[in-house]
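Office hours follow-up: a student asked to see two folded examples consecutively, so here they are.
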Amino acid sequence: MKPITILIADDETEIADLMELHLLKEGYRCIKVSDGLEAVRVVRTEPVDLAILDIMMPNMDGYEATQLIRQHHHLPIIFLSAKTSDLDKITGLIRGADDYVTKPFNPMELVARVNAQLRRALQFNSSPASNTAVVDIGGLILDPEQRTVLVFGKQIELTPKEFDILHLLASHPKKVFSTENIFEHVWGEAYYEGGNTVMVHIRTLRKKLGEDNTNKWIKTVWGVGYTFNG
């Protein structure tokens, strides 16, 4: 069995070495780079299973690197940053990260987050064939195998989490999911304070789907949660 490979992209050598030390103890293979451009090159040429990206890096920052990686790859990405405000965290998730860890960090917490993201990715890749059926409802076509979304013939670019939320709702039309349900299904973790994270993703998802007063794909059921209104 090939080892699970973790990409570490951080221009602070001490931090990169610390992450590598703890991830190696878990049995992971690590590749270290010091800038975003090199991170993109590695993902395109190596079998990377998960990436940990610092946001502020030379040559190319973590945001831009994530955008380029997401064009062809759907591996979990964890942002690592000294920016600690809620707005910074929300921005990181909107820009395509699956998780956001602030510096300074507890190495064991980072390892736990890596493990959680890898478990979730494994669950998705080994999901039953019934979950790979194409969803075609009222002008929206969602293909789980290709991870593509068409709205009235126009392809919409979604982050992995946005896609997973839409797939969850669209494959269970009219069923109401609470924010807790969505977080636990999509993030694969126990729900603690994930409500804001879910709401931010729903908001950006609606914007990308081009919702207006006559076209509401995702309906809010006040006090309960969200449902697909196809």
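And the second, which I mentioned at the end of office hours:
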Amino acid sequence: MSASPQKSWIRRHPKTTIVVTVLFFTLFFDLVGTGIYHLAKYGTLHKYEYLRVMRIKDPVFHHTLKPEAEYTLEKWGGTQYILITNSLGFKDRQVRDVPLESASRRVLFIGDSFTEGVGYGYDQTFVGRIDIAFADRQIEVLNAGVASYSPIMYYAKVNHLLKTVGLKFDDLVVFLDISDIHDETGYELENGQVIPNAIPSSVSVLRGFFFEYTMIPRNIWSTSEKLCRKFVKDPDSHPRSKEDHSYGTNTYRSLWTIEDSIYEAYGEEGLQRSRQHMNLLYQLLKDHGITMTVAVYPQPDQILHHDLDSRQVKFWQAWAREHSVPFLNFFPDFIQEGQDPKEAIRKYFIPGDLHWNDEGHRLITEKFLERWQPANPLDGEAVVAGAEGASNRSGLQ
């Protein structure tokens, strides 16, 4: 008797075959449908096309803005703003070629997304407003700030601008963000280059693909993450209420100044790494005869918790005093006795976000112009005299 022919895998597993087939075609049609939707809304298949157009990788300081480019971005709330860069890849009011030397005194600002001024065109940001104000004083302003920068990038980028690009400037103003401390723990400095200290996992790559190119898998993944946060303690996040989201509060990357457990988790390490890279930046500037100013400001969490005598303030004030560097403390401008903290957040921050709105940029501009003055070059004994003189003249804290 001849043996009966062996059934195929499909016939032996009909239910599994049906499930796999349904999932395949669901994903296929979801990809097609999402692609059509993105083409209609964004003019491209990529939901985050602006990240590819304007935000590019850099082999030295990890990431930057694309030079001499102009792109319309979505702003929170459905409105739009135009991001424009100059020849150096700095946010600017127009696409232009920036000469490496200037006949005027030149001030370079550097920081993260607050300094870049996400959500607003150049002239609406505090750097752009200072630029306009300084025009009458024959002082040129440049903005090297980019979202997700931290002291390791500040040093690597300024070092590259001075030694490789040959950019000449007289003053550097460093705006240190609360989130810098968390960001510092994710990178290492190797041969002058900023290198991530962790390789993206296959899961994170898959998540990124689903969130950019699909709708159904993206929503399933997003819902699953929310459920996991409810039932599983995630050390890198806090459960956030609708009110938290509306005020930009209870964020893990900002709570290190307030909660001891979070400070122990990454805050202490992040501060020490930041100190190392700020020390390198200070020495670099001193070698080139460039003055330095350090500025700190609160995020919504610090305002909500009335964190006026903050770890951020105490640490960088001590560092600035140690290096005889002018120190600008904007915490008291946002955290005032008797003021409802939520009212202050509504007044100065973009709804549903933790970045400054128009009033926030206006406040920083006003207080900066009141307090900052060009100091003497960093040259030995003049470092101390220049820093203390600037502090006394301009009311620096």
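Two things to take away from it. The first strand starts at residue 55 and ends at 58. The chain has two domains: 13-42, 60-202+248-394.
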